[in-house]
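Weekly sync, protein design subgroup
Attendees: M.S., D.O., the rotation student, P.L. (late)

Item 1: inverse folding check
M.S. brought a backbone from last month's batch and wanted to see whether the design step gives back something sensible before we order anything. D.O. pointed out we never logged the input encoding, so this time it goes straight into the notes. C-alpha cells as presented (42 positions):
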C-alpha cells in the first residue's frame, strides 16, 4: 500500500474513487494530465 500513496504527489487529478480510498492503483493519461484512479473500489 505505501506505493499506492506515494504516487499521489505525481498526479495532476484524482478520481472520486481514489479520493474515497486514499490510494491510487491505476494512472490514466487523460488530455495530457495524469489522473489517479482506484480500480479496486469500482
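Designed sequence read out in the meeting:
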Amino acid at each position: 500500500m505505501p506505493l499506492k500513496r506515494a504516487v499521489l504527489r505525481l498526479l495532476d487529478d484524482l478520481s472520486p474513487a481514489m479520493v474515497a480510498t486514499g490510494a491510487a492503483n491505476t494512472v490514466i493519461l487523460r488530455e495530457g494530465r495524469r489522473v489517479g484512479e482506484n480500480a479496486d473500489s469500482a
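Discussion: The two ends are 18 Å apart (CA to CA). DSSP finds two helices and three strands in the chain.
Action: P.L. to compare against the previous round before Friday.
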